[in-house]
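dude i think i finally got it to work??
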Amino acid sequence: MAPPDRVGHARIGYAAAPAGHQQLTETGANLSEPPKKSAATTSSQTAASAASTTRRLVPDQNAMLPSLVRRSCASGSHLPPLAWTYLPSQLAYHHGLLLQETLVARRLRARELLLAHKNATMPLSEAQRALAQRTAETDVLLLLQHEPVFTTGRREKDPEQLRAEGERLRALGAEYVATMRGGQTTYHGPGQLVGYSIMDTQKAGVSRPHAYPSHAGSHPLEHARLVAPSVKWIHFHDTPLMLLVTYHLQLDTRCYVHHLEAFLESLATALGAPVHPCAHTGVFTSPTAKLGSIGIHIRRRITLHGFALNVTNEPLRWFDQVVACGLDDVRATSVEREGEGAGEGVEGVVDLAVSEFGRAYGRRMVRLEAGDAQGELRGVIDMGVRGVLPELGAPIEL
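look at this
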């Protein structure tokens, strides 16, 4: 098996066997000599032969997963950098939500444009193609603090209860917003580091998994899955030389959440806070004290929402107003109360958070700055911060 050419994308080459001989693949399947490329071979015959070859290879792909995972997770150096920024001013929640939705919509629109260009139904200029490629491939981490807001998740559906609770909490001076993320009611506000990761789960590689054991007892990559492989014969002067089978390693929802938890646990430890293993999603310092929360939504492989870490004690009095995340016997805590790293407030932990996030996902983290190649992305984020993005449903312009 050849080494992977990128994280999350393992490419396997099988040399063709001499005529009259059988070839044994790494998984133990016999691979007969490939069909020769000739004018007499019809496209349907070629497709049928490839499908037959695929059937001999694919049944063992699950057995190959551990090997592919180990190889694919060896290094994140071939993944594109992950762009990040910290928004220094407190952001209204609905502005942050619209910003996330807009970033996802732009990536999906860029995919559509690239596919149309590939199929020659909507040719793009070189500059347009480069912009669409950059938009489709750039993962983003937004770090920020919100104005005081309580948000609900998809698990809370009683409209009368939501209305009454909204009235009560708004009277305290906070927003109250229903969202599509997972989980139940939580709080965001000053003193809390919030991270929104806009990532493509199919292309998001994972590096050094041994450094991030799962507190639930299973390895995060057990929840990765292989996407259907593609099979291609490579010919030289009409002679089939090699069969390339490409497997895509895709992070599923549980795998992605596991890594967010591992990142938050590593960050909490680096800030001097204890981490207590817990079956509930999030980061706990004891069975009854929760330091960080996770709530995500995935749309066509692209993630929204993310994590929150209580840095100072300021959020704690707000958490006392609700049963956060539906856990009656759990109270919120903070790095300031439990650890050593909250002396400079949220801004003081941003650089460490960026470093730990990059380490968890095996990505090189690049800050968005004036003069870089991401002018369009910076412009969208600036519009989101200022609250001047068009509402969803308007035509998406890259």
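Residues 7 and 72 are 5 Å apart (CA to CA).
im so relieved honestly
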